[in-house]
Amino acid sequence: MALAVQIAFAAGCSGGQTGGTSEPSEKSGETVTKTNVPEPVKLKFQPVGAGYLYEDDFQLLVVEPLKKKYPHITVEYVMPGKGTMIDDLVAAKDVPDLLIYGIGNYTQYRDLGILTDITPLVNKMKIDLGRFKPWVLDNIKVEGKLYSLPYAMNTNAIYYNLDLFDKFGVPYPKSGMTWDDIIEVTKRLSRFEDNTQYKGFMYLNSYWLGYQLSLPFTDPAKKKSMIHTDGWSRAFQMMKAIDTIPGNERGSPVADFYDKRNLAMVGAYNLIPTLKQEKYRTLRWDVAGYPSFKEKPNIAPPVDLHQITISNSTKHPEEAMQVIDLLTSEEVQLISARSTGRASPLLNKRVEQELGADMELIKGKNVTAFFDTQPAPNVMFANEDIAVQRSIEKFYKEYSSGSMDVNVLMQKIGEDANQAISVLNNK
Fold first, then answer.
1. Among 63, 82, 232, 425, fewest CB within 10 Å belongs to which?
2. Which residues contact 252 (CB under 8 A, 6 or more apart)?
3. Which residues pair with 196 in a beta bridge?
4. CA 45 to CA 3: how far, in whole Å?
């Protein structure tokens, strides 16, 4: 699906200033100024999925700011779908100029050969990187190269259903809770009532707690699984302790929370851009800081950084870089925080404090909870890491059902992942 939009844009880095020359006119004593109007430029823009930048957010954060600042460019919003997935566009040699992706898509985009180090362009155009939180840029650099700039962060928190806590008379969760605390609350909320199985808590997926401990999936030098460790054993046992609470058997975490509404708490990344949809307006919810391991208090999973980059096939790299510079500017980031609920990667307290200020949806919500925890160091997933994650998904349920112990689980994951990694590296 594509949406063509006209937005204003200037050539070069001058912020929209146009030059001109003065020449005498045919009428004596008059001077006519000829303005150098920049040539029209067309760019294509594609997020990896709708949730990364919905079309209305694209209008608000890209189209409108650029209309105000720059003239004469057409930007086409290309939604991934049948025939327009990034693989399709690469095959058709029609890769969009601007691409939005998340940490889990890096290796896909890298292997498709569409990324480029934007550092020379950043230096040439004097893009101010000092506005970003230092750890943010450190976490997206790969071997010193910068392939993108972040425009949003998926901060982690506990989202909880106020109605279910009120229904069962359980105190609302608070920031600073440990996983042991969450287990106790989950036991009180997991019950069968009114012909409905209510569940207490779910985390996102079957490696999330290890991710929170910054545990490596693979040895990058040996290209082998590193899953058989005390750290992973601790993570798997804690996950099982949550998933085997009677009545709290694992389902679909996010869908159970805001569609079925039978889940009292979900530990998740930023759900606000989804919860602002009309169909979820009746859900009464609030947030608390993400739970942590007692040995690492107030440490949440790494932040999922949403990144925007320039494809290496673009014919207009400087114009594309101006779009990125404006999207990640303090002015537009404040609009994003206030109006879309996206946490900003900028080192700017005002942007942080005004999160959701213009959104009726989150007025009165404890939005400071997003910042009550510190994110664990980020992990730039390699293909080998993704192979290990798939092996975890493959065997974890068998472990949590009680048919194998944790050491057998880690052995099976390691063997399966190493086989997949071997196939991957011998292609």
1. 82
2. none
3. 193
4. 10
The pair of structure tokens assigned to 117 is 């180090």
Range with the lowest mean pLDDT among 76-80, 157-161, 169-173, 235-239? Answer: 76-80
Nearest 5°: phi and psi at 329?
-75, 160
Which amino acid, 139?
N
CATH class of 2-12+39-154+304-347: alpha beta
Token output for 131? 């506005």
0.85 exceeded by pTM: no
Q: ∠ CA(44), CA(49), CA(53), 5° rounding?
A: 70
Which residues 6+ apart lie within 8 Å of 65 measured at CB?
326, 327, 331, 332, 335
Longest dimension (CA), the chain: 97
**Tens-digit pLDDT profile for residues 10-40:** 333 333 344 444 445 444 455 544 567 778 8
Residue type, 161: N
For 404: left if phi > 0, alpha if psi spans -120 to 50, otherwise beta; the answer is beta
- Domain boundary assignment for the chain: 2-12+39-154+304-347, 157-302+377-425
Type of residue at 169: G
pLDDT tens digits, 193-205: 999 999 999 998 8
- End-to-end, the C-alpha distance of the chain in Å comes to 34
Question: Distance of CA 396 to CAs 211, 275, 406, Å?
Answer: 15, 30, 9
What is the Cα–Cα distance from 265 to 253, expressed in whole angstroms? Answer: 9
Q: What is the CATH number assigned to the segment(s) 157-302+377-425?
A: 3.40.190.10
